[in-house]
Specification:
single chain, 423 residues, mainly alpha
Length: 423
């Protein structure tokens, strides 16, 4: 019996969605994400206080993507070869070390170094958590399951940024970073004691090869996520600063409203995707995301920012789990670690390039517009370009996506049939 046949025979999907492993992974994702989002939205303010210009703030915010991308050739094959649980644990510990270290740094170079360390952790936590969750989800409910799993991220986005900003304003940056690291530590402890690998999870020999690092079937979702992430990363990097320039108080409410909106849109859009197909849901969602940037560019009151957050929640917030679930439908079970690694590579690349390019645009526009606020306003419109490109790529590749899904389903069905015949 071939390796692929044995794997197809071994893999047994859970009968129900709300099983113990799936629920515990949601809790782990919640605590780890909450600490991460508490830190990520005060880092730009912290860097600005250290004297960093807009372009450097953009680089610092996205610096984690440098090491996240650099580690991909080594981490991708490991995801399908070793215990996902313990790899996830190590990655969470690295996130804790970096976030804890933020509290004690007072220089831009050290801040960048810690962002690099954080990048290794964040770069592995995302795909590992998603791959572990996919092993606990029934095949027919993949979009719904991924939508529910990412609700933990949505809750973290709802409360993390506002909590981080509030703590930094009341007590200072060090207590805010220490609190964030405590949440991440809770996630690590839960992983160590209460999360287990799927008992029938397949393991491939560790090998650094292109098809073990990236799954070709996941390229289209990865490119789309990468383009959309270029624009979305700018909200984490510059929204708090932009709100201050517009003299809008309580800008942290943008992140809270955006994330609360995800609590409704992610399970709803996941259900609609399972029922009607991804395209009928994803394209309107991406259009909503584009509209949110137009609203932000013209907003000068908290009401305008809240409206933008609601629209963005129906946009990027819904599109991300849809592209992730689409990837799992296209990639064979054997290479789900590599598939998850591929889509997160796209996201990391977008998160690295987006804030830096946006920062360059802002620095270039300040002398032209004569106002920093006007330069930021124009930047939001410029960042519509990657979103439109993402929509075009997704629609143009529809025939390829459908063919890939059909080929993967047929190959796995044939492998299961062969395994059953051979006993």
């Amino acid at each position: 019996m071939s390796t692929s046949t044995r794997i197809a025979a071994a893999r047994t999907a859970p009968n129900k969605l709300w099983n113990r492993g799936f629920i515990m992974l949601i809790v782990v994702n919640l605590t780890q994400s909450l600490g991460t989002f508490m830190a990520i939205n005060i880092i730009p303010l912290y860097a600005r206080g250290l004297g960093a210009p807009a372009s450097m703030i953009g680089f610092i915010t996205g610096a984690f993507a440098v090491t996240a991308l650099a580690v991909r050739p080594f981490s991708g094959p490991a995801f399908d070869s070793f215990s996902k649980k313990w790899l996830f644990f190590i990655a969470t510990v690295l996130c804790f070390v970096a976030t804890f270290g933020y509290a004690f740094t007072s220089s831009v170079p050290v801040l960048i170094l810690l962002r690099f360390v954080n990048g290794v952790g964040v770069g592995c936590c995302g795909p590992l958590g998603m791959a572990l969750a996919s092993e606990q989800i029934p095949e027919g409910r993949m979009s719904s399951g991924i939508g529910f799993f990412t609700i933990a991220t949505a809750i973290s986005q709802a409360f993390g940024p506002a909590l981080g900003i509030e703590l930094s304003q009341r007590w200072g940056y060090a207590p805010a970073f220490l609190t964030a690291s405590a949440f991440i530590a809770v996630g690590a402890l839960l992983l160590a004691f209460f999360v287990h690998d799927a008992p029938d999870a397949p393991r491939l020999p560790y090998k650094i090869a292109l098809n073990r690092i990236f799954a070709r079937q996941a390229v289209v979702p990865a490119v789309v996520l990468g383009l959309l992430s270029m624009s979305f990363a700018c909200t984490n990097s510059f929204m708090a600063i932009y709100g201050g320039l517009r003299q809008v108080g309580g800008i942290g409410l943008y992140f809270t409203v955006y994330a609360l909106c995800l609590l409704v849109t992610r399970p709803l859009f996941g259900h609609l995707s399972d029922k009607y197909g991804t395209t009928k849901v994803a394209v309107p969602a991406m259009c909503c995301f584009a509209a949110s940037f137009i609203i932000v560019s013209r907003s000068s009151s908290l009401a305008g920012f809240v409206a933008a957050a609601l629209v963005a929640g129906c946009g990027f917030g819904a599109t991300t789990p849809l592209m992730q679930s689409l990837m799992f439908k296209c990639v064979p079970h054997t290479y789900r670690g590599a598939g998850s690694n591929t889509t997160y590579t796209g996201q990391d690349a977008g998160q690295l390039l987006g804030p830096f390019l946006a920062g360059v645009v802002i620095d270039a526009l300040v002398p032209v517009t004569g106002s920093e606020a006007a330069a930021y306003s124009t930047m939001w419109l410029v960042m519509l370009i990657p979103i439109v490109a993402g929509i075009v790529v997704y629609l143009a590749c529809q025939p390829l996506i459908k063919r890939t899904q059909a080929e993967t389903a047929a190959a796995e069905a044939a492998a299961r049939q062969t395994a059953e015949q051979k006993g």
